[in-house]
Structures are given as structure tokens and as C-alpha cells.
Amino acid sequence: MKEINIIYLEDNPDDIFFVKRRLKEAGVNFQLKEIPSGKEFVDELQNIHLFDVVLSDFNLPEFTGEEALWAVRNVSDMPFIFLTGALGEEKAVSLMRKGATDFLLKDHMDAVAKVILRALREYEIKRKEEARERELREKTLTLNTLMESMMDHVSLKDVNSRYLAVNTSYGAFMNADPDELIGKKDHEVVNDPELVKRYEESDRYVLRYQKHIMEEIDMTFDGRRIILETLKTPLINDKGETQGIVCVSRDITAKKEAEEVIYKNELLLDQSETFNQSGSFYLDTASMQMTCSKNFRRILGLDEQSSSEIPFVAFLDKIPVSERDLIEDSLTMAFKFHKELSLEHRLADQYGNVLNLRTQLKADTTTGTNRYVGMVMDVTSDKQVNNAVLQAQENERMKVAEDLHNSLGQKLVALKMYINAFQSKLDDKEMVGKAQTLIADSLDEVRDISRNLSLKIIEHNGLKSCLRHLRDLYQQEFKSELVMDFDDNDVSLENAGHIYRIVEEAMSNTAKYAESNCFKLSVIKEQHYLDIDISDDGVGFDVNALPMGNGLKNIQGRVRKSNGVFFFSSEPGKGTSLKIRIPVREQMETSARVPSGPIT
């Protein structure tokens, strides 16, 4: 038995002796402190927490038991028992109302142990009940605070599905005072029978199986669509018994409608991308991760159902080595200056087929400078058509060149021979000389036209020789500086034709509009591409004030057809500069490599 610490206010040693004796006889483990006077008792109250029970005589010199009770009750609610010789019934009731726990007449001292133990037992029960009530009040306060602080609709039901508590948000949703809902069932507050049936079924499931349930309800309430996401959880006590249901509902109408809009937009995007043979992506340059559409993954030969996020290097590695550096450099420039980018390049799909893609990139200005929105379009068919058109044009040029050479050219040669033969028989030698000069110039011009119309001259003489010839054609217009460091075998015949036409267009524009004294052309082979710089010192123009002319559009179109990139700049009084990069001739390959980190 736990030791009981007793403080006893008594001035009679015999009474103290009898109490100790009776407690020992009852087998009580105790410590008893004797206090003979009221003054000592009051002084000892500072240590009252060290005791379990107070025993007190009622009649003491200069200090009454009632005063002792009052003094104790000011500092503690511990058991207080009167041991007295005589005490009227009315006084006993009065003392009990003022806080006395019990009283025992000294004639019945044999029962003192029983009275003390009963008082301690009842006091312990009282303390536990008070602790439970305090805990319940705290939990109730916490629950009410939580319920009222939540924007969600929160309710508590008993095992009969009657509302025990609802928060203000739920009351507002139901257009009712929360107190009016207490004690009611769903069919008393909801007008939709189907909805009530669904509520009741889910309540029964939670109560029967003691499992939570999440349900989504799409309903019409007060003439408007509402979608609720509701979590119902069983309320289980310490004994494992179900006491009720906690319901938390959240209005997800706006979220679901937004998701529906996104889904519809995704369907439209998918249909549009499928129709246009394109795919879209979102690039974060900080992590170099791409979030891709299904069609983008299809174009790259990835599983359309796989993760929509892929590393950017997975895209680069499918581009042939001869074009990869070119694209990385172009991306670096675009990222650095936050410029839009559009370029054409090749890509190998999962079957080894070579696709021609147009990739476009634009900064997402809504989220900062590290994110870009992009699109790739499969232009393989378009390129085949364009190439066929170009080939038809080249064939037509070749036919015209051949006709000029074989018909008009041959006739001019014959005419020159006849004049030379008649020269000795004609009197006006000067007129004959002029005719000969005119015919010679016409013949040279026909040959130049024939040469320029046909790309066979490139095939026969090489790109470098043809570029020198172009330079010589314009030597009367401006001074030309030509730097070339590449081999003709580095360039495919198709790209060589594009380069020749690009330079021809640039020189023609310079002669027509630039008022330039100097034209500079540099064609240098880097590792995987030709670096072409074209510039003049002419009048220039404001690129922001004037639209791109046909000449520049033609150049840009041929650069794209060559899978190259094109930059140009111009300022009034500072001339015009073109920077072009075109891949060199190389076998289609997509060798993997270790990612080198973000392109910055």
C-alpha cells in the first residue's frame, strides 16, 4: 500500500495516540504530522502539497476547525476530515457545504482508517473525473477552433448519422444556422433524394467497416453546379467502438472545371499537333529538363505514355553530330539574349529514319528568364516538296542555260565567224570592229548567264572557284575581300548550291542598295559546320523600323533548307552583317555523349 501522509490538527495527545493506533491496527502505511495549534497549522500550509489528507478537531483554543477548513480550501482541495467529540447535524451539513470531506465522532474512532481510505479513494476518482472533463473541454475547444478555422465544410455525426456539430462554413454552404442542423439527418436538410441515398450509403460503409472513404460528388445545388470532395472518417474510442463519423468536404468546382478546360485544351493541342506533325515542349534552362507533349515524345521515338519530363540532352543526342554543335551555339545565343529562335535540323527516329525538323523557341516572360516554350515540326514532307521545286527550278535553269549555249550562243559564234570572214571585203573597218566587240561581249554575257543559271558549274569547278567568280563579277561595283578555309568535299552539292545562291543574293543586294565600298565574305570550316560571315560598309538600315525584305527572306529560306542558322544585324550608317552557320557533309549519326550540364 502506498504511504499516506497525514497532517493532524489536534491539541489532545490521547486522541492522536488513538488515531495512530487504529491506523496501525488497520494495516495502513502512513506518516502523521501532529499540529497542536492554529498558528503552527497556518504556518505549515506552505507545505500542504506534501500531505494527502487533513484531520482536524473542531474545537481548539483560539482556533476552530471551521477556520482550519477555510485556510486549507484557499490553497488545496485535498480531503479534509473532522474528528470531534460532538457535532450537531445542522453544523455538520454546513461544514460539508463549505468543503469538508467527512466527519467522524471520536466515540467511533475504530472507523478512522476506513473513513480516511474512503475519502482518499473518492478524492482520486474526483481528480480523474476532473482531469477527463478538463481534457474533454480542451479537446472540444481544439476541435471547435479547428473546425471554425477551416474553409472546408466540417461536420460530426453520431452512429445514427445525426449531426452533432458543424462548422460555420458548412452552415453557410447549407444556407442554415449551424445550430439549426444539430440533431438532424441528411434527408431533413438535403432536398435531393439521390444525393441523400449516396450520403447514407457511405455513412453505413464507414460505420460498419470502420474505414475512411473518399468520394467525389458532382451535383446541382441552388441552380449551380458544385463538385465536392468529401472524406469520411470513423470516430473510434479507446475500446475500438465506433462513436460517429467526421466528415470534411471541400468545394473543388473551380479546380475540376479548370482541369476539364486543360483536358479539352490538351485534346485540341494533341489534334492540332497530330494534324501539323508537330510537338510542343517546355524547357527549364536551370535544370535543362523538358516537359513534353505526347506528340513530341512520338517524334523523338519515345514511349508516348512515358513520363512527360525528359532531360534536354536526350533531345540533343538524337541530332546528328554535324549539326549538334551548331544548334547548341544557337541555343546559347538565344538563352543569353532571350531571343526567339527558329532553325531547321535533322533528327534520327527510333527506326533509323532521318527526319527534317523545324524547332522554334520563345522565352516564357510570365515566369522569368529561365523558361522557354518550344515547338518542333516534322517538315520532312515539306522539305521533300521544296527540294522537288528547287530541283525543278534548277532543271529549268539548266535547260535555259543549255538552250542559250547551244542555240543563241552557237549562233553568236557563227555570226562572229562570218564577220571575221567578211572583214577583208568591207570598207568600214571601224564599224566592223565595233560589231565584233559587241558580239564578243554578248557571247561572254550569254556564257555568264548560262553559268549562273546552272549549278553544274559548282559540280564541275567546286564552290570555292564559283565564289571567286562571283567576286570577280562585282569587281566594278565594290572592293571585295574573300577569305575561304574549307574543302569543297566538306559541302554537299545541295548545300553548296544554297551557299552560292546566298552569296549571290547578298552581293546583288549590296550592289543595288548598300552604296558600299567594301564587301567582305568569310567561309571558314569549324569542327562540324561552315561559319559564313558576310558584311558590307554601306548605308545600313534600322532592322526594327523596316520589315525583312525579299532578299533577306530568300537567304533565310536557303539557310533553313541547309539545316543552318541565320543571324543578321544592321544600323543606319554602319552597314549590314550576316552570320550564317551551315552543317558540313557528314554521315547521319547520333552518338551518345556525357551530358555537359546546362547551356548558359
From TrEMBL:
<keyword id="KW-0067">ATP-binding</keyword>
<dbReference type="GO" id="GO:0000155">
    <property type="term" value="F:phosphorelay sensor kinase activity"/>
</dbReference>
<dbReference type="InterPro" id="IPR035965">
    <property type="entry name" value="PAS-like_dom_sf"/>
</dbReference>
<dbReference type="InterPro" id="IPR001789">
    <property type="entry name" value="Sig_transdc_resp-reg_receiver"/>
</dbReference>
<feature type="modified residue" description="4-aspartylphosphate">
    <location>
        <position position="57"/>
    </location>
</feature>
<keyword id="KW-0902">Two-component regulatory system</keyword>
<dbReference type="InterPro" id="IPR005467">
    <property type="entry name" value="His_kinase_dom"/>
</dbReference>
<dbReference type="InterPro" id="IPR000700">
    <property type="entry name" value="PAS-assoc_C"/>
</dbReference>
<keyword id="KW-0808">Transferase</keyword>
<dbReference type="InterPro" id="IPR003594">
    <property type="entry name" value="HATPase_dom"/>
</dbReference>
<dbReference type="InterPro" id="IPR011712">
    <property type="entry name" value="Sig_transdc_His_kin_sub3_dim/P"/>
</dbReference>
<dbReference type="InterPro" id="IPR036890">
    <property type="entry name" value="HATPase_C_sf"/>
</dbReference>
<dbReference type="InterPro" id="IPR011006">
    <property type="entry name" value="CheY-like_superfamily"/>
</dbReference>
<dbReference type="InterPro" id="IPR013656">
    <property type="entry name" value="PAS_4"/>
</dbReference>
<dbReference type="GO" id="GO:0046983">
    <property type="term" value="F:protein dimerization activity"/>
</dbReference>
<feature type="domain" description="PAC">
    <location>
        <begin position="207"/>
        <end position="264"/>
    </location>
</feature>
<keyword id="KW-0547">Nucleotide-binding</keyword>
<keyword id="KW-0597">Phosphoprotein</keyword>
<dbReference type="Pfam" id="PF02518">
    <property type="entry name" value="HATPase_c"/>
</dbReference>
<feature type="domain" description="Histidine kinase">
    <location>
        <begin position="403"/>
        <end position="586"/>
    </location>
</feature>
<feature type="domain" description="Response regulatory">
    <location>
        <begin position="5"/>
        <end position="121"/>
    </location>
</feature>
<dbReference type="Pfam" id="PF00072">
    <property type="entry name" value="Response_reg"/>
</dbReference>
<protein>
    <recommendedName>
        <fullName>histidine kinase</fullName>
        <ecNumber>2.7.13.3</ecNumber>
    </recommendedName>
</protein>
<dbReference type="GO" id="GO:0016020">
    <property type="term" value="C:membrane"/>
</dbReference>
<dbReference type="Pfam" id="PF07730">
    <property type="entry name" value="HisKA_3"/>
</dbReference>
<dbReference type="Pfam" id="PF08448">
    <property type="entry name" value="PAS_4"/>
</dbReference>
<dbReference type="InterPro" id="IPR000014">
    <property type="entry name" value="PAS"/>
</dbReference>
<dbReference type="GO" id="GO:0005524">
    <property type="term" value="F:ATP binding"/>
</dbReference>
<keyword id="KW-0418">Kinase</keyword>
<dbReference type="InterPro" id="IPR050482">
    <property type="entry name" value="Sensor_HK_TwoCompSys"/>
</dbReference>
